[in-house]
Amino acid sequence: MIDLHLHLDGSLSIEDFQYLAARNHVDLGKDFPSNVYVPEGCRSLEEYLTRFDLPCALMQDEFSIAYVTKSLVERLYKAGYIYAEIRFAPLLHTLKGMSQEDAVISALSGLNNALRGKENFDANLILCCMRQADYHTNHETVRLAAKYKGKKVVCLDLAGPEAFHTGDYYKSLFDEAHDNDVDIIIHAGEACGSDEVIRAIDLLHAKRIGHGIHLDLSRENVRKVIEKRIAFEFCPTSNLQTKSLTDYQNVPLRNFDKYGIMVTINSDNMTVSNTDVLQEYRHLYKTFNLTKQEVRHLLANSIEAAFISVDEKMKFLKELDKRIDDYYNKIIE
Ligand SMILES: [Zn+2]
């Protein structure tokens, strides 16, 4: 499997929570472990985002960031993934005085430790700016994305409550990233509508869109995303939980695909959403009766949209062809 949209702080294992809570003297609350998953009857993205408070409280020092990163990469490898891009916002990890740069260095050390000796598997990091953070704090994240580009940091993202500010508010930050050849993803078209997706592409230089399910497939918009080869990171279960979608039937998979728009399937948050990419494919298989060719096509899209070299893409496509029968059997079982 391949996951291109996977938040580190939304994907701690139950054991990670227990270990770090004891080490860092953090109270997990009387509802643990149910309080690490999306709240029952969650009504919005804002409510969903409250589930990041506890993992972030545990990840305020170098050791803890390295620990959870290593843990996640090792779980993905064991589960038969071939590639993942793991994202996190270093600015959320400075409450106890750690710098954003130290947070990035720690995540890289956990990542590189976990990758050692693993064949036919790779993972990279994406750094997130946050919509609710101030300019200077986000600017430091932009600087770090440029500084660590090519050193296992592959991209800069904008996450957080989509209704906070529209894309134009962040233009100078993402202009600077673009001028420094940093690739860009923007969370857009999840809680808000199509205009925010277009702003992400036109104003913020996005090459991939986190979610984007609400893109209006007008002739002009379709032409734009095809011409610019924009890839969309769908995370169906997460969208149902945040009430961005009401049913798996409403995932615009076939609508996007019929125009040749590049769609990828992702988990968003393995713990908060209580899912993984295999589960997402299972839901889509049950809803749309996906064939093996369609699953292979979607996974090949993920490889095509990944921020890796052409040689690595060729290598992972070969690996995908070796594993597709196994993947499909697991999806339909
Ligand atoms: Zn996300």
Task: Give the key terms.
14 helices, 333 residues, binds zinc ion
The global form is globular
Structural category: alpha/beta
Order of helices and strands: EHHHHEHEHEHEHEHEHHEHHH
The CATH architecture is Alpha-Beta Barrel
Oligomeric state of the chains in view:
single chain
Give the name of the CATH superfamily: Metal-dependent hydrolases
pLDDT below 50 for ≥5 consecutive residues: which ranges? Answer: none
Compute the CA-based radius of gyration. 19 Å
**Strand order in space, largest sheet:** 1-2-3-4-5-6-7-8
Q: Give the N-terminus to C-terminus distance in angstroms.
A: 16 Å
Proportion of beta-strand residues: 5-15%
User: What is the helix fraction of residues, given as a range?
Assistant: 40-55%
Strand count, sense and closure of the main sheet?
A: 8 strands, parallel
Mean pLDDT comes to: 96
| Topology, number of strands | 8
Q: How many H/I helices?
A: 14
Bound molecules: zinc ion
CATH class: Alpha Beta
Structural write-up:
With 333 residues, this protein is an alpha/beta fold. It starts with a strand and ends with a helix. It has one domain: Metal-dependent hydrolases (TIM Barrel), CATH 3.20.20.140. Strand 5 (184-188), helix 8 (194-202) and strand 6 form a beta-alpha-beta unit. An eight-stranded parallel β-sheet has the order 1-2-3-4-5-6-7-8. The protein is 47% helix and 14% strand. Helix 6 packs parallel to helix 7. The protein binds zinc ion (ZN). Zinc ion binds at residues 5, 7, 159, 187, 210, 268.
